[in-house]
Structures are given as C-alpha cells and as structure tokens.
C-alpha cells in the first residue's frame, strides 16, 4: 500500500524519471503516466500535469503543442538546464546507490559470517 508519505518521499524520483525520458525523446502526459506505472508509480493526470507545469516553470522542460490525428497534444522536452540537471543528478544518484548497496552488502556479509 502506497501512503501519502511514500508519494512525498518518491516524488523526487518521479521528477528524475520524467526528466530522463524528456531528455531522450518528447514525452506527453498519458505516455509518461503509463511509463511511470510500469515502474510502480501510480500518478493521476491531476498529479502529473501540475508536476510537468512546475518543471516547465522552473526551466527544466519546454512544451509545444503538436497535432496528433485530430487532437492537439502537448509534448515536453528537456531544456539545456534540464539536461544539465539530469547529468548532475545521475552522479548524485550513482553515489547514493553505491553507498546504499555497499552498506547492504556489508550487512549481508556480517549476517552470514563472511569477512570482507
């Protein structure tokens, strides 16, 4: 069960995930909702669109409206600031994950009586 606290805690990961995809290709609301759902994040349009708009206001994303079939679709792309932020975030995430998994491995070794 995902609690409100979980959603708050993981919101930074959601933003990074959005930025990651927007840096590699244009994204749109429903498409990114489906992508995030594949990773266990359940966002409604009412939660996602304010997030996309905030990321655009802060300069991480830029949107354009393009016609897809009969309907217009707002596409979001990472800006130069968004790409730079993503590069910095990748280093920070790699550092954190390394630390987390090294600590986990050390704990497992201790629990199983294995010396490092």
Question: What would your notes on this structure say?
Answer:
- This protein is of the alpha+beta class and 116 residues long.
- It has a single domain, classed as Winged helix-like DNA-binding domain superfamily/Winged helix DNA-binding domain (Arc Repressor Mutant, subunit A), CATH 1.10.10.10.
- Helix content is 66%, strand content 14%.
- The protein is built from four helices and two strands.
- The protein has a two-stranded antiparallel ribbon with strand order 1-2.
- The longest helix has 32 residues.
- It is elongated and about 65 Å long.
- The mean pLDDT is 89.
Q: Helicity range of the residues?
A: 55-70%
**What is the count of DSSP helices, taking H or I runs of 4+ residues?**
4
Mean of all residue-level pLDDT scores:
89
CATH architecture: Orthogonal Bundle
CATH topology: Arc Repressor Mutant, subunit A
In terms of structural class, how would the helical and strand content be classed?
A: alpha+beta
Please mark out the parts with pLDDT under 50 across 5 or more consecutive residues, or reply none: none
**What is the name of the CATH class?**
Mainly Alpha
- SSE order, one letter for each helix or strand: HHHEEH
Terminal Cα span? 37 Å
| Spatial strand arrangement across the major sheet | 1-2
How large is the radius of gyration? 18 Å
Outline the fold blueprint.
Elements (H helix, E strand, L loop, with lengths): L3 H21 L4 H10 L6 H13 L3 E8 L2 E8 L1 H32 L5
Antiparallel strand pairs: 1-2
TL;DR?
The protein is of the alpha+beta class. The protein has four helices and two strands, in the order αααββα.
